[in-house]
């Protein structure tokens, strides 16, 4: 799993960090998302997805390492 954040889309309300504190945090200046663990172990996959799903801006992208499939956000129309 590979996690990235579109920082220009992030509006900095830190919902991701409150839902998944081992994966996401907020920077001290603007409160924008900081990914603490961009390649988490499988034990943290569910937490990473929970934080990404909770982002109202869909600023977080999660990609499968092996297949390169985008796991989040869902493709438009699905
Ligand atoms: S929930 Fe989304 S918009 Fe809010 S801080 Fe996290 S990545 Fe940024």
Structural description of this entry:
With 78 residues, the chain is an alpha+beta fold. It has two helices and five strands; from the N terminus they run βαββαββ. A hairpin with a 6-residue loop joins strand 4 (60-63) and strand 5 (70-72). Bound molecules: iron/sulfur cluster. Iron/sulfur cluster is lined by residues 5, 10-16, 24, 32-33, 55, 57, 59-60.
Structure described in brief:
This protein is 18% helix and 22% strand.
Spell the H/E element sequence: EHEEHEE
What is the CA–CA distance across the termini? 21 Å
Helix/strand class:
alpha+beta
Poorly predicted residue ranges = none
Outline the secondary-structure elements.
Layout: E1 2-5, H1 15-19, E2 24-26, E3 33-35, H2 45-53, E4 60-63, E5 70-72
Antiparallel strand pairs: 1-4, 2-3, 4-5
Bound molecules: iron/sulfur cluster.
Summary tags:
alpha+beta, three-stranded antiparallel β-sheet, two-stranded antiparallel sheet, 2 helices, 5 strands, 18% helix, binds iron/sulfur cluster
């Amino acid at each position: 799993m590979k996690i990235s954040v579109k920082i220009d889309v992030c509006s900095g309300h830190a919902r991701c960090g409150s839902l998944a504190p081992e994966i996401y945090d907020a920077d001290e200046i603007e409160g924008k998302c900081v990914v603490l663990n961009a390649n988490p172990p499988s034990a943290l996959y569910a937490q990473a997805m929970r934080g990404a799903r909770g982002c109202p801006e869909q600023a977080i992208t999660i990609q499968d390492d092996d297949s390169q499939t985008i796991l989040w956000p869902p493709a438009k129309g699905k």
